[in-house]
């Protein structure tokens, strides 16, 4: 008995309707990217392992899909190494390539490798699949698409302003109102750590602070104490736990909290600049919110940090994020190339649009007209009309077989095709077509021009 086919966990098949909806999101994001002057690039699905390994921390390295060398991949493993059964040591011998984990590191590699051909500042966008050996759950898959846009070779904060506008433009085009663009700055987090005397525990401090809305103030304080942050320093954080109000009011409070930190005040100044720009230019449907607990990507972000939250009516993790990095290309030997970038979480955006029923009906570009097949003569006559319909931008097709009419009509119903054309001997002689509206149940005999006008 044949084994029932299946696909790996964390991957998905997409039916025609799902593909149409995904393409709708892709095309919307792509259009806005190009409107803002970003140019497309693509990189290989897999990279040399040395390009990826060590760039995402221990956890990231564990989630990278390694590709076995072709041929006898064990021939470089001696008996002693094989006996050790140490996967980390053996991996470098049996695997020299890996599926890309994200689009950012391959982009950094691309910039360094092609630096002599690139005109800086370089604005690129990239929309391709990535792979992570993660535990599958709602909104998290092992194969998924990322939609990234980055600017490298410029330290100007106007780029941050434009990225916030870009987020707003995309979600407005998708009719997804109520999105919140959260922003913080790595310098502010470093400044707070400096003020409380925990410069050497920046990561511990920010990881704990990031949990404020999940576990509450007291638990966060307990975690900080457990990580060795002194009580006196935690007491200095008290104003931070109650930080609220408008963007401007929070900025004012931060200036007081960070008054003794030059780096922290620099971060406040940068956020103030960005907010002033957005206040002047305005946003259509999204809101900009300062969130000092936001601490994603601390290993490489050096300035602004972004995270996009779906409307509050939907239970969903972040649907986008990004930030400023001053030296990402330094991992490949090209120093002092500043950049800033953002990413859209296509799969989560899909789930949000689905839940809120925001996909337009016209997204699924179904066949609009099906010609019933009564025989070769009638089929050839129909195909001449189908040529004209297609030239007019109307999706049309001929049922391929001369099956019973009931079967052909059921086929149209199951595929939700709104119009059916019946062409028999009489229609061929009279050079007309019988058009049946499958929704209203009405039908008329029309010439070709009238047929095109009726279904267009």
From TrEMBL:
Keywords assigned: Aminoacyl-tRNA synthetase, ATP-binding, Cytoplasm, Ligase, Nucleotide-binding, Protein biosynthesis
Gene Ontology cellular-component annotations: cytoplasm
Catalytic activity: tRNA(His) + L-histidine + ATP = L-histidyl-tRNA(His) + AMP + diphosphate + H(+)
Superkingdom to which the source organism belongs: Bacteria
GO biological-process terms attached to the record: histidyl-tRNA aminoacylation
MF (Gene Ontology): ATP binding; histidine-tRNA ligase activity
Domain Aminoacyl-transfer RNA synthetases class-II family profile: 1-400
Record-listed L-histidine binding positions: 102-104, 132, 146, 150, 296, 300-301
InterPro entries named among the record's database cross-references: aa-tRNA-synth_II, aa-tRNA-synth_II/BPL/LPL, Anticodon-bd, Anticodon-bd_dom_sf, His-tRNA-ligase, HisRS-like_core, HisRS/HisZ, HisRS_anticodon
Subcellular location: Cytoplasm
EC number(s) given by UniProt: 6.1.1.21
Primary localization: cytoplasm
Family: Belongs to the class-II aminoacyl-tRNA synthetase family.
Subunit structure: Homodimer.
Name used for this protein in its record: Histidine--tRNA ligase
Organism: Formosa algae
Gene name in the database record: hisS
């Amino acid at each position: 008995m044949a084994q029932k086919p299946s696909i790996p966990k964390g991957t998905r098949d997409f039916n025609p309707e799902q593909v149409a909806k995904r393409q709708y999101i892709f095309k919307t994001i792509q259009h806005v990217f190009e409107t803002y002057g970003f140019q497309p690039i693509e990189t290989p699905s897999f990279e040399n392992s040395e390009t990826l390994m060590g760039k995402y921390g221990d956890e990231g390295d564990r989630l990278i899909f390694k590709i076995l060398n072709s041929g006898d991949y064990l021939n470089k493993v001696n008996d002693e190494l094989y006996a050790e059964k140490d996967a980390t040591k053996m991996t470098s011998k049996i695997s020299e390539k890996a599926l890309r984990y994200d689009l950012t590191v391959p982009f950094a590699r691309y910039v360094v490798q092609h630096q002599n051909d690139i005109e800086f500042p370089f604005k690129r966008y990239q929309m391709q699949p990535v792979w992570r050996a993660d535990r599958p759950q709602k909104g998290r898959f092992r194969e998924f698409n990322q939609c990234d846009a980055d600017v490298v070779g410029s330290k100007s904060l106007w780029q941050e302003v434009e990225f916030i506008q870009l987020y707003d433009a995309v979600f407005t085009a998708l009719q997804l109102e109520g999105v919140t663009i959260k922003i913080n700055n790595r310098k502010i987090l470093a400044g707070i750590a400096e003020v409380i005397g925990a410069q050497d525990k920046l990561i511990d401090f920010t990881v704990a602070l990031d949990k404020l809305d999940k576990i509450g103030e007291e638990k966060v304080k307990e975690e900080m104490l457990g990580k060795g942050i002194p009580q006196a320093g935690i007491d200095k954080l008290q104003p931070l736990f109650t930080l609220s109000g408008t963007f401007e009011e929070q900025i004012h409070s931060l200036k007081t909290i960070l008054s003794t930190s030059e780096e922290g005040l620099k971060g406040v100044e940068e956020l103030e600049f960005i907010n002033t720009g957005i206040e002047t230019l305005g946003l259509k449907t999204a809101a900009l919110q300062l969130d000092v607990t936001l601490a994603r990507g601390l290993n490489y972000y050096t300035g602004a940090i972004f995270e996009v939250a779906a409307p509050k009516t939907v239970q969903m993790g972040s649907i986008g994020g990004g930030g400023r990095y001053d030296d990402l290309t330094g991992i490949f030997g090209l120093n002092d190339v500043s950049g800033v970038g953002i990413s859209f979480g296509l799969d989560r955006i899909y789930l949000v649009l689905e839940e809120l029923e925001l996909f337009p009906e016209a997204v699924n570009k179904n066949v609009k007209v099906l010609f019933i097949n009564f025989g070769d003569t009638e089929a050839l006559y129909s195909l001449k009309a189908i040529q004209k319909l297609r030239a007019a931008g109307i999706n049309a097709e001929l049922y391929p077989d001369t099956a019973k009419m009931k079967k052909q009509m059921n086929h149209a119903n199951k595929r939700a095709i709104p119009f059916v054309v019946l062409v028999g001997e009489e229609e061929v002689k009279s050079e007309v077509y019988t058009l049946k509206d499958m929704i209203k149940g009405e039908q008329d005999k029309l010439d070709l021009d009238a047929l095109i006008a009726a279904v267009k």
